[in-house]
Amino acid sequence: MPTTARWAATLTLTAAAVCGPLGGSALATPAHVTPAAETRTATVQAHVTPALAPSGLYAPSALVLTMGHGETAATVTPERAVTLNCAPTPSGTHPAAYDACAELRAVNGDFDALTLRDGALCTRQFDPVVVTVEGVWRGKRVAYERTFANECVKNSYGTSFFTF
Questions:
Q1: Are the CB atoms for 115 and 96 separated by under 8 Å?
Q2: Alpha-carbon gap, residue 154 to 164, rounded angstroms
Q3: What is the mean pLDDT of residues 93-98?
Q4: What would the mean pLDDT of 67-90 be, rounded to a whole number?
Q5: Model-level pTM?
Q6: What string of H, E and C letters represents the secondary structure of the chain?
Q7: Residues 106-128, buried b or exposed e (16+ Cβ, 10 A)?
Q8: What integer best gives the mean pLDDT of the chain?
Q9: What are the tens digits of pLDDT across the range 5-47?
Q10: Cis peptide leading into 88, omega within 30 of 0?
């Protein structure tokens, strides 16, 4: 995948992860609704979907993780991509979002601190896998790339962050 397409996909996934779905006043109101009914609808939406309200207490933590076979991100076509939001609550398409966020918090967002689990057994087959992480961690922009010898080795680092 060309670098431009990779950036476009990453930006799109990051924007979707950070901004989330449209809600509140951003939703379209049918033309036949009166202003009073519109106010009641907005009030009901605000009470039904409090998660859509912006939260100024937490620095954003929204990441896009991609995985592909190859030696560098520049030459790899992403085969899988997941999103991971860690603030204020863990969410996203990552299969273990809660555990992955807890793991990242434990190492203060240092991806290199996620080391090989004790007792992990993998073959010595060389089938390189590249993982990229791009987005925002606790309000700071991050871009990370790591190449693993094979998918088993990738899955054995940390407990759940790289397992997707």
A1: no
A2: 10
A3: 95
A4: 93
A5: 0.64
A6: CCHHHHHHHHHHHHHHHHHCCCCHHHCCCCCCCCHHHHHHHHHHHHHHCHHHCCCCCCCCCEEEEEEEECCCCCCCCCCEEEEEECCCCCECCCCCHHHHHHHHHHCCCCHHHCCECCCCCCCCCCCCEEEEEEEEECCEEEEEEEEECCHHHHHCECCCCCCC
A7: eeebebeebeeeeeeeeeeeeeb
A8: 76
A9: 555 555 555 555 444 543 333 334 344 444 444 444 343 333 4
A10: yes
CA distance 114 to 117: 9
164, 103, 110, 160: which is closest to 137 by C-alpha?
110
User: Distance between CA atoms of 83 and 94, rounded to whole angstroms?
Assistant: 6
Residue linked to tokens 């998918």:
151
Check residue 21 and give its pLDDT. Answer: 43
With tokens 């519109």, the residue in question is 38
Q: Are 161 and 104 in contact (CB under 8 A)?
A: yes
pLDDT of residue 42: 40
